[in-house]
Amino acid sequence: MLHTVNKSPFESASLKVCLGLAKPGSDILLIEDGIYGALAGTIHTAMLAEATSAISVYALGPDLKARGLPEDRLIPGIKVVGYDGFVELACANDKVQSWL
Amino acid sequence: MLHTVNKSPFESASLKVCLGLAKPGSDILLIEDGIYGALAGTIHTAMLAEATSAISVYALGPDLKARGLPEDRLIPGIKVVGYDGFVELACANDKVQSWL
Amino acid sequence: MSETKKFMYINRRPPYGTVYPLEGLEVVLIGAAFEQDVCMAFISDGVFQLKQGQDTIESGMKNFSPTYRALGDYEVTRIYVERESLEERGLTEADLMPLTWEDEDDDWAEKPSIQIVSRTQLSDLLEEQDVVFNF
Amino acid sequence: MSETKKFMYINRRPPYGTVYPLEGLEVVLIGAAFEQDVCMAFISDGVFQLKQGQDTIESGMKNFSPTYRALGDYEVTRIYVERESLEERGLTEADLMPLTWEDEDDDWAEKPSIQIVSRTQLSDLLEEQDVVFNF
Amino acid sequence: MKLAVMVNEGPYTHQASDTAYNFIVAALAAGHEIFRVFFYHDGVNNGTRLSTPPQDDRHIVNRWSELSKAHDLDLVVCVAAAQRRGIVDPDEAKRNGKDSDNIAPGFRISGLGQLIEAGIQADRLLVFGD
Amino acid sequence: MKLAVMVNEGPYTHQASDTAYNFIVAALAAGHEIFRVFFYHDGVNNGTRLSTPPQDDRHIVNRWSELSKAHDLDLVVCVAAAQRRGIVDPDEAKRNGKDSDNIAPGFRISGLGQLIEAGIQADRLLVFGD
Question: A68 with D51: CB under 8 angstroms?
């Protein structure tokens, strides 16, 4: 299943709650302010970096660009997709859960 | 000065940010979902309990009642006030900062 | 609409600070008429929605907590509450409103709707669903 | 309105996810006409508002980041950024847009508006204010 | 595939409405069917024709109306959520004794059953909110 | 004392509008002056007369209108925020080519200068939001 997270981990517990319930093999897509969770070198990096071994993590490119974050600032292994990739992820998974 | 916090510490960083910037001698009033920060026996209790030695902490009674939380569930030392007490705190302090 | 799907309504927010819990309940009640396989999950601050003794008179808001007691009549009989969320908040099952339903197949015996489940169990339940709503 | 008060505009949210930063800037620009003693503070995720290289074309939103560069022309010359908030987010001052103002009393020399301050310094500055806005 | 979308926040204040729009445009471009877009909570505020954003910004309401026209999109505003927030069509105005309405072209007001039906009929339900 | 209040969220969705109202009622009861209530961001949505909440719930918009009438409260809706969100008075409707307006009794639309002025003139500014 696909989980989306749209909140900054510095402000909201959404990403943490998502990681607590997402099963190995799940996909997580970070969108809107959720893309800050993808940043390397922050106090919250470890939480997501550990999860990337069992879970595929994606970040929405247009939201990264809006916020001035180039791909080389992200945790290694996180894949960047566009809105077309978002649609593909939604279709490839059997359902979508939005952690708002 | 009076600081108000209206977010649950389980979901938002507001209370933590407030405590990081509030000086000894300040007043903090927990309102709306912020009153969950006043609960004893939670994973976030220690953060506020430590602060009560230098800061006066208040919780808005009508918001506690709406959420079914009696006073005996609160961290010792936290005072419960009504909307009239909120007005008094706002006037007694030189300014009010709302941590939204 | 002959198909039957598994619907889960996830409640993750505390009551009154926002309207999401109240408007979420309205979806559940309307949804009951569609005879799908429905359950509710209360996690994170959502567990506070089920806290006993809510009294909104002084705050002037609408006390919608009695609606949870009506869920059994709408055949919403499986209400999962995450144990870890309760513990992190210093709550126990005794803090929650007792919610029940009447089992037609067991001489209308009154049975508890609330099931306290672990995070792992909830994760399994989530995986089984067809459609997930969040409020 | 002959009185002069100390105004601080605190920015605590990241850009684009919500409209608060954009509408907050509109308050600062209008407020500049009132000739009060004004400063801005960027803390928590608010520091992301000043990140260089914002490009909203693909998301279709309005890129309002150039407005920060105009603050100097509106005589908003003191922009405090909390060091701890930058560090927690893996950012350095080099990640921020360079914001400047021209000092009339120093032959219009261009001077930096951004001052990186510690949490303790910011706490002191907050205490000095008369009116505090949050966006 | 048949996709349904739920939008839970109003225009401008949160990015939810923008993301939902961009997602739908991409889904249509990929050949998918949008079964319905359901506006709930503050999402109902996407459906007011009285919005006039600054000229240098996107016009979120008009963008929905135009997308609806171009792709025959079913844009449904929840009646209960709309009543609380003051989004009304001519019928609702009459029923509630209001002297005017404000619904934008392409939107219709209907009940929560339309959301449940979308959940049942669509292959995927996507929720955008705060 | 002279108090000013800023309301940044719409009715029902967030408790901010309720808390602001209860605070103001208590302040008036204690003999304080309310210099102005300024509605910004989604707070402008408090000012629509098209709202019809369920009969067993409080009517937030009417409550503001009645409080304004009883205490001569100055309820100011920010024009820029209101334009984005579709809150218009007859003048704004004419200026922006809209066929109707929706402002509730007791509210007036004005500029952000009214907020700054409130900050300068009042002894305390209280902000209620999300």
Answer: yes
- For the stretch C92-119, pLDDT in tens is 999 999 999 999 999 999 999 999 999 9
Q: Within 13 A of B98's CA, how many CA atoms are on the CB side?
A: 23
Domain annotation covers residue C96: yes
Q: Number of residue pairs across A and E with CB atoms under 8 Å?
A: 48
Backbone angles phi, psi at F75, to 5 degrees: -100, 110
Per-residue confidence of chain E (130 residues) as pLDDT tens digits?
999 999 999 999 999 999 999 999 999 999 999 999 999 999 999 999 999 999 999 999 999 999 999 999 999 999 999 999 999 999 999 999 999 999 999 999 999 999 999 999 999 999 999 9
- Six-digit token string for D42: 């960027």
d(CA C44, CA C82): 8
Catalytic, out of F7, F24, F61, F78: F78
Token output for B24: 């000894």
What would the pLDDT profile of F55-109 be if each residue is shown by its tens digit? 999 999 999 999 999 999 999 999 999 999 999 999 999 999 999 999 999 999 9
Stretches where chain B sits below pLDDT 70 are none
Q: Whole domain around residue D38: which residue ranges?
A: 6-134
Largest CA distance in chain C: 47
Closest by CA position to E46, among listed E21, E25, E70, E17: E17
Measured in degrees and rounded to the nearest 5, phi and psi for residue B28 equal: -125, 130
Which CATH number do you get for residue D67? 3.40.1260.10
The mean pLDDT value for D104-124 works out to 97
Q: Indicate which of A5, A11, A33 best probes the interface with B, i.e. most B CBs within 10 Å of its own CB.
A: A11
F41: its two tokens: 């961001």
Q: Which CATH number is A41's domain given?
A: 3.40.1260.10
CA proximity to A100, closest of B38, E80, E20, E115:
E20
Q: Give B44-82 as a DSSP string.
A: THHHHHHHTTTSEEEEEHHHHHHTT--GGGBPTTPEEE-
Residue D112 lies in a domain: yes
Paired strand residues for F5: F37, F126
| Residue C21 is assigned to a structural domain of this protein | yes
Active site residue F78: yes
pLDDT, position D2: 55
Q: Which chains share 3+ C-beta pairs under 8 angstroms with A?
A: B, C, D, E
- Both tokens of E19, joined, read 């993301």
**pTM for this predicted structure:** 0.98
**Domain housing B71:** 2-99
Question: Domains of chain F by range and CATH?
Answer: 2-128 (3.40.1260.10)
Does an interface of 3+ CB pairs under 8 Å exist between E and B?
A: no
Chain E CA closest to residue F88: E50
Residue of chain D whose Cα is closest to the Cα of B4 = D134
Q: How confident is the model at residue D3 (pLDDT cuts 50, 70, 90)?
A: confident
Rounded to a whole number of angstroms, the distance from the CA of B69 to the nearest CA of chain C is 8
Residues of C in contact with B85 (CB under 8 A): none
What's the total number of domains in chain B?
A: 1
Q: How many domains does chain D have?
A: 1
Closest CB from C44, C131, C132 relative to A17:
C44
Interface touch D58/A70, C-beta < 8 Å: no
Q: Could you tell me if F23 lies within 8 Å of chain C, comparing CB atoms?
A: no
Quick one: residue E122, left, alpha or beta (phi over 0 = left, psi -120 to 50 = alpha)?
beta
C16 neighbourhood in chain F, CB within 8 Å: 15
Q: Which of C126, C106, C135, C120 is CA-nearest to residue C39?
A: C126
Contact status of D18 with chain E (Cβ, < 8 Å): yes
Question: Interface partners of C (3+ CB pairs, < 8 Å)?
Answer: A, B, E, F
What pLDDT is attached to residue C3? 73
What is the per-residue pLDDT across B72-93, written as a single tens digit (0 to 9) for each?
999 999 999 999 999 999 999 9
